[in-house]
Specification:
Keywords: Ubiquinone. By secondary structure, the chain is an alpha+beta fold. 18% of the residues lie in helices and 11% in strands.
């Protein structure tokens, strides 16, 4: 491990796992991996090991940048203790009308930009002339 990667792990939280996460991984149990490569772990509630928490701790090590919207809905439910069975342990098949998960595209090159947006690459539509600006002198 190079000095640069050690410094990156210490001072950045958005590049995957940090030093603190790696320390926690030592006692954690791997639960599963989603289709995006994010890896999920848990630390069961054991009063001898984990007296500070009343429920098991659950966390994710992101495959890329730490972006919460990159977690698919099934894993999101497990992470927030909505369901107890992780998606890796259940047989779920998506319905025909369900779209595949996409992370939040805001601020990225392929983000949605409507026709009137200043960031849109398309030509803004011409004014139709049916608008008259307000003036305090009127």
């Amino acid at each position: 491990m190079s000095l640069m990667s050690i410094l990156t792990d210490i001072f950045t939280w958005w590049n995957g796992s940090t030093i603190g996460t790696r320390v926690a991984l030592k006692g954690g149990e791997f639960v599963g991996e989603d289709e995006f490569g994010n890896r999920y772990y848990r630390l069961p509630n054991d009063p001898k090991k984990n007296a500070a928490f009343s429920t098991e701790r659950r966390w994710v090590v992101y495959a890329g940048y730490a972006e919460a919207s990159a977690i698919p809905s099934g894993w999101h439910g497990w992470m927030h203790h909505t369901v107890n069975v992780p998606p890796a342990n259940e047989n779920y098949s998506a319905r025909e009308w369900e779209k595949p998960h996409r992370d939040n595209r805001t601020g990225k090159a392929d983000a949605y930009r409507p026709k009137g947006s200043a960031l849109s690459l398309r030509q803004r539509p011409a004014a139709t002339g049916d608008y008259q600006a307000w003036s305090p002198d009127d």
